[in-house]
């Protein structure tokens, strides 16, 4: 389980260090930084997938994601005695992301490229990466470190040895310096990060992929867009906790039942509801009903990840379905660590009332602040 997450100078997240528990509920008003926090977690996960540079490019590049405010704001400005004015930046332009668990920690520092020789001037350079043992980075517990093109690791005798000397500035050491014999911890950490799951694009619109039949194969994790919904439900029933799924459907839609249709290798679902003369196919379901089915398939996965992150799961749901969604999330948190970003007061109350850690975001002079928890110790590596 992750015990901390840290981000520095990403959009409004000037210097965030969050303590994490089994179930974490992040809330706050519009514009407080909830979406930025969610995207920063996604960006960190993209490092393990070897695509952090392209993920940044999709957001407009480093220049579009870096903190846009001044390095410091004088108290006289905050008191209204003077206007806020731009100043020459003295500190290094840098975007930092990191996390720690009880056994491993990881941090990455992305900065402005130096020198020519390339037309990809908007791509940031990976300046530093560090993997350490334990929850807090110290000089003595570094397992592997990258500075520029050089990667060093802890040898069998406790000495520092060079693993790679020519790592490209756009390649992560988690992908291109991981070796089963010399740096097994890089492989372990990379696979953990690749297993994190994010859900915020479960489509329920008229042309949503899940509204049409798809080839059915065993599906241990619902796709991010929900396209393999029918196969995911069939997999839960065959090798997962089918009773929990049936209970969730009964909880949300009393007397209803989901059935899987198979024809020519294609899977589709129908929903049988009391009082209806015929079952409804996915193309006929309301957005809210379909979203709940998608969330149930995602949360009751037969192979839970170490971390699952939901962004505003209450979207399109009627208020009467919020308690059922809350119970579904609480059930899922028994099997994996959960981070839920929501602005629905009822859902937040349910989750926080059952032991979830409540983290409330607000903004002060453009900078996101966190209420509800004290910042944890998180040491950033030096370049």
Please state roughly what percent of the residues sit in beta strands, choosing from under 5%, 5-15%, 15-25%, 25-35%, 35-45% or over 45%. 25-35%
Number of domains: 2
Number of helical regions: 11
- What sequence of helices (H) and strands (E) makes up the elements? EEEHHHHEEEEEEHHEEHHEEEHEHEHEE
Number of strands: 18
What gap, in angstroms, lies between the N and C termini?
28 Å
- Average pLDDT rating: 91
Could you tell me the radius of gyration in angstroms? Answer: 23 Å
> Which overall shape is indicated by the principal axes computed on the Cα atoms?
globular
Spatial sequence of strands, sheet with the most strands:
2-1-4-5-6-7-8-9
Overall structural class, as computed from helix and strand content, comes to alpha+beta
Main pleated sheet: 8 strands, antiparallel
Helix content: 25-40%
Low-confidence stretches: none
Structural summary, described in words:
The chain starts with a strand and ends in a 12-residue tail after the last strand. The chain has 383 residues and is an alpha+beta fold. α7 crosses α9 (287-299) and α8 (242-252) packs antiparallel against α9. It has an eight-stranded antiparallel β-sheet, with helices on one face. It has a six-stranded mixed β-sheet with strand order 10-15-16-3-17-18, with helices on both faces. Strands 11, 12, 13 and 14 form a four-stranded antiparallel β-sheet that branches. Helices cover 26% and strands 28% of the residues. It is built from eleven helices and 18 strands. It folds into two domains: 2-20 and 52-195, no CATH class; 198-360, Rossmann fold (3-Layer(aba) Sandwich), CATH 3.40.50.300. It is globular, with a radius of gyration of 23 Å.
């Amino acid at each position: 389980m992750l015990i901390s997450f840290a981000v520095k100078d990403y959009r409004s997240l000037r210097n965030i260090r969050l303590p994490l528990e089994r179930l974490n509920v992040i809330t706050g008003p519009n514009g407080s930084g909830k979406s930025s926090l969610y995207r920063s977690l996604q960006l960190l996960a993209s490092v393990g997938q070897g695509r952090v540079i392209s993920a940044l490019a999709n957001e407009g590049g480093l220049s579009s994601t870096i903190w846009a405010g001044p390095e410091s704001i004088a108290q006289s400005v905050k008191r209204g005695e003077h206007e806020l004015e731009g100043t020459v930046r003295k500190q290094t332009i840098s975007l930092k992301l990191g996390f720690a668990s009880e056994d491993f920690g990881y941090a990455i520092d992305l900065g402005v490229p130096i020198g020519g020789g390339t037309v990809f001037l908007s791509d940031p350079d990976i300046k530093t990466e560090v993997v350490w043992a334990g929850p807090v980075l110290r000089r003595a517990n570094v397992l592997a470190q990258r500075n520029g093109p050089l990667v060093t690791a802890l040898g069998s005798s406790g000495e520092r040895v060079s693993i790679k000397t020519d790592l490209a500035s756009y390649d992560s050491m988690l992908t291109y310096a991981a070796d089963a014999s010399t740096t097994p911890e890089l492989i372990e950490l990379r696979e953990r990060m690749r297993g994190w799951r994010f859900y915020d694009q479960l489509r329920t619109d008229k042309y949503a992929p899940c509204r049409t039949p798809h080839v059915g194969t065993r599906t241990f994790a619902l796709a991010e867009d929900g396209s393999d919904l029918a196969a995911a439900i069939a997999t839960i029933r065959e090798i997962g906790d089918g009773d929990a799924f049936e209970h969730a459907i009964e909880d949300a839609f009393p007397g209803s039942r989901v059935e899987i249709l198979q024809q020519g290798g294609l899977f589709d679902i129908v929903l049988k509801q009391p009082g209806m003369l015929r079952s409804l196919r996915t193309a006929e379901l309301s957005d809210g009903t379909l979203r709940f089915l998608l969330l149930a398939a995602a949360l009751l996965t037969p192979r839970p990840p170490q971390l699952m992150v939901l962004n505003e799961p209450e979207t399109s749901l009627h208020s009467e379905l919020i308690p059922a969604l809350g119970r579904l999330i609480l059930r899922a948190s028994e099997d994996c660590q959960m981070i839920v970003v929501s602005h629905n007061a009822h859902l937040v109350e349910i989750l926080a009332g059952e032991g979830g850690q409540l983290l409330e975001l607000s903004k002060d002079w453009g900078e996101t602040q966190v209420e509800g928890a004290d910042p944890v110790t998180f040491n950033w590596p030096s370049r």
